[in-house]
Amino acid sequence: MHKDVKQILYTEEELRRRVKELGSQITADYYGRRPMLISVLRGSYIFMADLTRAINLDLTVDFMVVSSYGAGTVSSGQVEIKKDLSDSIEGRDLIIVEDILDSGNTLYYLLEVLRARKPASIRLCTLMDKPERRTKPITADYAGFTIPDAFIVGYGLDFNERYRNLPYVGVLKESVYEK
Ligand code: IMP
Ligand code: MG
Question: What is the pTM of this model?
Fold first, then answer.
């Protein structure tokens, strides 16, 4: 285990199993349709790679970079699109793929932007959900794990751009962000 990690929340094996389940559920729900999966970078890149391979549909992918955090552990509330989608979403069935749903600020803003472009439907798939911290009325249609209020890293999730490559999801030691 990494020295900055206090506790492992989900092992590689647990993540793999849950992502497979989400993939099967999406495959069943969208049977006969061609959803477009939108990965919100950077945090969802590993989840997106594994999730898309667990879905047996004729899907397409696109990527967006948004930032809401600055350098810290609390969302600033101001969201900025740093890289927009490459393709048109008009008439498409969108599945937004997020690493973690926390305050909901990022998605609240993103949903507004995307709805204005007239997709046929929008659903939200998040690997991690921290409902206790929600300040915006956002719920996930697909959620991998519901977790308590702790700052987590690994499997794509970062603290100041570090720890994304950990193969598991762990709780970061407070001493790392309090200093
Ligand atoms: P929200 O706008 O507060 O919902 O924040 C969503 C974004 O904050 C996520 O996409 C993550 O990038 C980041 N975030 C929130 N909680 C955590 C965490 O525990 N670890 C790492 N990143 C987090
Ligand atoms: Mg993120």
Answer: 0.93
Ligand 1: residues within 6 Å at CB?
Answer: 43, 68-69, 75, 98-106, 151-153, 157-158
Say how far apart CA 6 and CA 171 lie, in whole Å.
Answer: 6
Burial of residue 92 (CB within 10 Å: 0-12, 13-18, 19+) is buried
Interval 70-85: pLDDT, tens = 555 666 567 789 999 9
Q: Which CATH class is domain 13-69+76-148?
A: alpha beta
Two tokens, residue 26? 């999406």
Q: How far is the CA of 107 from the centre of ligand 2 (A)?
A: 10
What are the tens digits of pLDDT across the range 24-36? 999 999 999 999 9
> CA torsion, points 8, 11, 12, 17, in degrees to nearest 10?
-140
Residue 102 annotated to the active site? yes
Residue nearest to atom 12 of ligand 1 (CA): 43
Nearest residue to 58 (alpha-carbon basis) of 14, 90, 27: 27
Residue 136, classified by CB atoms within 10 Å of its CB into exposed (0-12), middle (13-18) or buried (19+), is middle
Q: Is the bond preceding residue 42 a cis peptide, omega within 30 degrees? A: yes
Q: DSSP character for 73?
A: S
